[in-house]
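Batch job 17 of 40 flagged for manual review because the log was empty.
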Amino acid sequence: MHKKKQKIVFCLRDMQLGGAESVLVRVLEQLLERNDLEISFVSYVNISEPFYAEWFRKHPEIKHCVLYPCPWLGTKLKRFFLLRIIQHWTRDIYRWGKRVFIGCHVLKNADVVIDYYDFGFRKEFKNLHAKKIAWWHSSINKFFSKNCNTKFIKDYDLFVALTDGFVEEFKQRLPQYKNKIVRIYNPIDINSVQKKIVASKLPDFNEYFVCVARLSQDKDIETVLRAFDMFWQKNNQPNVYMIFVGGGDQKKYREIADRLIAQKNIVFVGPQKNPFGFMRGALANILSSHSEGMAMVLVESMLAGTLNIASDCKNGPREILLHGNAGLLFVPGDAEKLAQHMEVVWNKQVPVQKLIKAASDSCHRFDAKNVMPDIIKLF
């Protein structure tokens, strides 16, 4: 007699290029290796990003259900504010009607439903009998920025955070929910990453620092620019470059860079299919975020054998870099301290290889093989 498969449903509003989406795909790939689970995926809208659309086409064993397929009432709102307001009201009425009168049979028949990004499906989960799990991918600062987030916890059976630091502060501030929260690192397929590292090509620069990040305000790209300019001027304008790898508002940050003395040594290369060549050839990888969910780019840089210099923001960098024993930390927004870190690295005044070895030796924490058993326990 065959044992009944457990029905697990992952829910994410949309599949855009981003951290949570790429991690979800890694989790699904690992779960597909099991034969005791029936896995479904529910999104608000049809998947428009080609990479993820193709991935789901290649994995028909994962049933995909779209709750609100009307494009005009999807996740992207119009720019013109009057149309935006009308669209917002119409969308809310449309979604309310579908929830109340139609619902989603995939959700209704599930054993476990997972709200994979920051309470995005709390309304759809409201009357379900299945066990409910909320997965928080943002920082603890964002979690406590809205009082409503703390109220949503009671509607879920478990709450998943990405770092121990998040869990500790959560328990201190919300002790009544201390038994509802667990920490699960974002899993990374180390073998797959190592193959990409080997296949990557080094850029045509002699010495350079790299910042692999989305060009946006929350990544504090401006601090990296100012810090590099300080470092470059103080060290007699050396033949060292600052390279930015990633999509976003390149025009905005190029304009800021062009006002600096080091402008000719600042390069924006845009998003790269394989950024590991830029990582492994760098003097250091720099992360300057105001806040993070976990900062997987630091783990990827560790696997590439490159030193990390990261802002000591909530949450992730300090934990990933072993409190400064596996990389260098600075206060978020402190361009002067970041410039000092660049200087000591370039002048070989810091034990880079010792820090890199400590980082490399600790990467097993994030290996999918070690993380997946924790995810299975949730079910």
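Reviewer: the log was empty due to a logging misconfiguration, but the result itself is present. The longest helix spans residues 81-102. Unflagging and moving on to job 18.
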